[in-house]
Amino acid sequence: MSYENEVTVIMDAISQNEAFARITAAAFVAPLDPTIGDLTDIKTAVSEAVTNAIIHGYENRGGEVTLRMKISADGEVNVWITDHGVGIEDIERAMTPLYTSKPELERSGMGFTVMETFMDYIKVTSALGEGTTVEMRKKIETR
User: Fold this and answer.
1) Which of 64, 76, 107, 137 is catalytic?
2) What is the spatial distance between Cα 69 and Cα 23, in angstroms, rounded to a whole number?
3) Element (H, E) at 82
4) 4 has catalytic annotation
5) Is 104 exposed, middle or buried, given 0-12, 13-18 or 19+ CB atoms closer than 10 A?
6) In a structure prediction context, what are the per-residue pLDDT tens digits for the chain, which is 143 residues long?
7) pTM (2 decimals)?
8) Which fold has domain 5-139?
9) Distance (Å, whole) CA 126 – CA 33
10) Given CB 3.0 to 4.6 Å as the disulfide criterion, which of 76, 105, 106, 133 pairs with 82?
């Protein structure tokens, strides 16, 4: 199947929308007939990015999270998760396995590591006081 498609969803930055983002991502990539593994990888990476936006970007004080997804003609899935929260002071440190800026919330500090493990590409851009965008890609092989 060779086609292109794009969707943008803007949701409230509340924990209930983490599951909504997972389901949305799964439904969006379903026409590519991904393996269960690929589908799980994308859902998990989206879940981690949205959760980070809610907990770290907005510090659970509300706001909006944008989930943008694009399917390229070659079957590559591009995902952008954007918040307009506090931003990340040190991206490299934030992406270090086991680092968490919220140890009091018993966060594992593995969110970015999970995203890097399950996706083919990840890039994080952020500005203090302006927010963060996590860009991820995964190639879905046609069967």
Assistant:
1) 107
2) 13
3) strand 76-83
4) no
5) exposed
6) 567 999 999 999 999 999 999 999 999 999 999 999 999 999 999 999 999 899 889 987 889 999 999 999 898 999 999 999 999 887 777 766 555 555 555 555 567 778 889 999 999 999 999 999 999 999 998 76
7) 0.86
8) Heat Shock Protein 90 (3.30.565)
9) 33
10) 133
**Would you kindly state where each structural domain of the chain is located, as residue ranges?**
5-139
**Cross-strand partners of 5:** 71
The verdict on whether 116 is a catalytic residue reads: no
Looking up tokens 């593994």, which residue turns up? 37
Catalytic residue among 17, 18, 22, 48: 48
The sign of the torsion formed by the CA atoms of 16, 94, 113, 42 equals positive
What are the angstrom distances between the C-alpha of 81 and each of 103, 111, 114?
23, 13, 15
